[in-house]
DNA sequence: ACCACAAGCTCATCCCGGCT
DNA sequence: AGCCGGGATGAGCTTGTGGT
């Protein structure tokens, strides 16, 4: 998969380093180039407005003046084995000016497109779907996971582990966990990164919930499984309040500030962590204060 | 329940026209 | 020419779905 030689000045080359990977005419799958993942705190709900923003808070002007290229007609997609050159262009109306713009698929030279190649078809659809999506013609909507929701998962494991160490418990079913989660979050208005109010939380459905749940904190899950192995008892579902989540978040921040390696998954042995957990659930007063502060 | 993949989201960069 | 601002575009990631 040789890089094409593109003549550019060094600084341009630098700026383009990402782009070069995919301006390549070579239409074979590129090697999965990894890059450090950004702060995953993002949590937004799909809105009909265009999602593109800069890091800073967008000005009212920027929001209201935004124009969108709206593709004409229904969503259509390319299918393997069905040649259709018309899918390589999209006629769009500019939502502001009404100007007509025709966008063209550029990823693969048209003469090289193999309509029997699943990879090529997928590239064409990725391009088309991106344009549809920007115009608000979504195929599905997504509610990003909020930091507090992820903290909930983390606490679920920590509290269950602590409980399993003190007595025999039975792990709840996926549905029981989800019900507890939804009971906590549904109807809540959480705040985004910039303190903005997000849309009211709605129920997380079983498949999506399980999908997320199973991806989170594999080490903690493993530890919990070890803790309950060979024992039995009542089903235990920890009760997790927003006050607990906030205090847990604060504690993590404190540890991080002290330079303590703060993968909570590894932190069971730190003294502070032990102490924190010990007073975590019975410290109702502190919690009540926390909650009223919100 | 798990896995593969489609679709969504954010961010960075490219691109281009207008202005100085 | 160089700067600026905003639209266009793609990468790289997350989330949700559907088949098995």
TrEMBL record:
Residues 1-56 are annotated as: Disordered. It comes from the Eukaryota. This is Uncharacterized protein. It comes from Clathrospora elynae.
